[in-house]
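Margin note: ligand = nicotinamide-adenine-dinucleotide.
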Amino acid sequence: MINFTLLGAGRIGKMHAKIISEHEDANLVNVYDVNQEFASQVASDNKANIAKSAMDAVQDENVDAVLIASATPTHTEYLIMSSEADKPVLCEKPIDLDINKVNECRDRISGSTNLIQIGFNRRFDKSHASLKQAYSNGEIGELEKIIITSRDPSPPGLDYLNAAGGFFRDTTIHDFDLSRFILGDDPIVEISAFGDNLFDENAKIANDFDTAMFILRSKAGVLIHINNSRRAVYGYDQRVEIFGSKGMMISGNQTPTSVRKYTDTHTSSKEPIYNFFIERYEQAYKDQLNEFIASVKSKSKSKVTFEDGRNALILANAAYESQNNKKVVSIDFS
Ligand SMILES: NC(=O)c1ccc[n+]([C@@H]2O[C@H](COP(=O)([O-])OP(=O)(O)OC[C@H]3O[C@@H](n4cnc5c(N)ncnc54)[C@H](O)[C@@H]3O)[C@@H](O)[C@H]2O)c1
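Resulting structure:
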């Protein structure tokens, strides 16, 4: 049984608390959030203690592992705290929005062998992961293209936009990571990014984008097209396509059931696709935790490393450089 401390009891922290509590090999011991109301609600829902401080919660000798789901600017501090306490940690993406803070954190934890897994949950989606597996097995031959469509159902509020750190670092970062995951050993070498403001007034006020497209190229020449929007009236649009010399594979949108309806106005219609990430990626969040628990128990290496988190941020930063300077940007992961 792995005993967890949860840091951060907001939107995603609440979800992680439930997944930990329901897991047969995990137990939620402590919850800490600067917002005491959130902490006490999540603690009482999951029969956990409310910790007085993050330090108390992490250093608690009854705790085996830490899940960081607090606001992004707190992640590096909590990663260092957990590593210094030798507590394996599953940390939500992004590690931070500032590459200097990420590098400082990397220096601080460089001597540690403590397990760190970054929360790129989409790697654990069975459909997306099956594309990677098929490519690795040679089923689509030489990989030539990856096409990722990732659109949110509706734009977030201004408060979220002001705190999130920008579309590319907060949202596209998942797609940058998924591209790297599918490519495996073949690194991304250049990127061209286009952001736009087509419909969301709040995005304009926050100096952010509501629409974006990216073209990336890998060292082996694979072209990757990522397209994002903060609005899709039909739900959370999550599709991945890989195309190669022996064929194509698509991980399509999912609906809660496979029912199809035929009426006098439709030949075939399905119910709406899942509305947002908590529903669409429910299985992936659970398998992400399964992977983490298995790594803690077997003391094996992380499959989604700190470097994966850092590299995804480097791609997001290069995307901003490309957008701002209207040029193709070479990627330097060093
Ligand atoms: N992997 C995913 O699919 C996914 C989805 C959503 C959010 N996230 C990430 O999860 C993190 C949280 O996002 P959210 O949507 O739950 O945000 P949120 O604003 O709902 O929750 C953040 C929580 O952190 C708390 N907090 C702030 N400072 C703190 C501190 N110093 N110590 C402890 N708690 C503190 C806040 O009070 C709040 O309850 C972000 O890094 C975000 O990028 C990941």
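Residues 14 and 42 are 6 Å apart (CA to CA).
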